[in-house]
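Good morning,

Attaching, inline, the backbone tokens for the sequence recovery test we're adding to the shared suite. The designed sequence is right after.
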């Protein structure tokens, strides 16, 4: 079905042996739901947050700017191009909008108010990274979609023109605009939008390289040795966006948490670490601010330069760390 070294004839496989935590440990996971886990959601609804639309509508050809929309949705403005990652604008990261993990705050920009987007990057098919309603709305703009193997079929099924879709296997590179390269890299995760289609599409991280700047979008991944290979092959990066939230020991192979993310940052060779995949949905049993607060502790111990903007806040890259403790009033 797929001519890929990462496809075993039936499903895609991880770079190293991996347990998802949702099969052999399912009863342990269910048992956790019977326990009291405090502060999994904000005491006060965060926000409202608003982006600086006049700023975002003024794109400069030699700058790197990042605006965090929450979770893994980022507007990356790099060297004259705008790239949107894993856009999820709906209320719930779920197949149902009446049930499932609910956003702590609305997206800081309405979809219709987004500036012109040059590309949309999809890391994998989970509901907190790939949303049908958001994709259909953005697809009307004829924006190119770049995704991992198999995800293109989902996009096409939602009405996205096949000419707008480009799929990547791990280690594939493409010049998507003159002097602008996109490369897919391994991640340690899994895929599936239901129980019966587990791992029938690929999951990936991405390297985005412009004429002047370069970033690593780590998406969802457990810790693995190929972070070092990614750093050696493509680094150094200006910013590495790495997931820190939705962690639990029961599924430690597929999500890093703050401690392992710090190790991944050291391996991947970047100037700034930007935590993603936290503070937006309740997807684990830890307190909703635990991932970022733990990361701040580690960063102090290991001298890790962090980039932690408020939702909707645009950071213009200058090589210097920046931390906005926006979550404090809402704990």
């Amino acid at each position: 079905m797929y001519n890929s070294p990462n496809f075993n004839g039936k499903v895609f496989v991880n770079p190293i042996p991996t347990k998802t935590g949702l099969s052999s440990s399912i009863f342990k996971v269910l048992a956790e739901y019977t326990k009291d886990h405090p502060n999994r959601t904000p005491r006060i609804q965060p926000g409202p947050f608003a982006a600086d639309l006049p700023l975002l509508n003024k794109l400069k050809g030699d700058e790197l700017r990042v605006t965090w929309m929450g979770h893994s949705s980022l507007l990356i403005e790099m060297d004259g191009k705008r790239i949107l990652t894993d856009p999820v604008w709906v209320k719930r990261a779920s197949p149902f909008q009446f049930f499932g993990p609910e956003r702590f705050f609305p997206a800081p920009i309405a979809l219709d108010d987004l500036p012109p987007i040059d590309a949309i990057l999809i890391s994998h098919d989970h509901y907190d990274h790939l949303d049908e309603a958001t994709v259909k709305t953005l697809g009307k703009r004829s924006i190119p979609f770049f995704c991992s193997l198999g995800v293109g079929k989902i996009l096409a099924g939602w009405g996205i023109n096949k000419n707008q879709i480009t799929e990547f296997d791990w280690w594939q590179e493409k010049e998507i605009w003159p002097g602008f390269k996109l490369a897919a890299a391994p991640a340690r995760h899994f895929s599936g939008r239901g129980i019966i289609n587990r791992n029938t599409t690929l999951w990936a991280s991405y390297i985005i390289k412009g004429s002047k700047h370069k970033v690593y979008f780590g998406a969802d991944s457990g810790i693995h040795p190929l972070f070092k290979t990614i750093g050696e092959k493509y680094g150094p990066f200006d910013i590495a966006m790495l997931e820190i939230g939705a962690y639990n020991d029961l599924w430690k192979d597929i999500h890093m948490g703050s401690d392992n993310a710090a190790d991944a940052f050291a391996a991947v060779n970047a100037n700034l670490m930007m935590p993603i995949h936290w503070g937006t949905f309740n997807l684990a049993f830890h307190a909703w601010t635990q991932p970022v607060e733990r990361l701040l502790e580690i960063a102090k111990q290991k001298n890790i330069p962090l980039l932690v903007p408020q939702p909707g806040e645009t950071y213009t890259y200058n090589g210097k760390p920046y931390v906005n403790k926006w979550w404090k009033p809402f704990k």
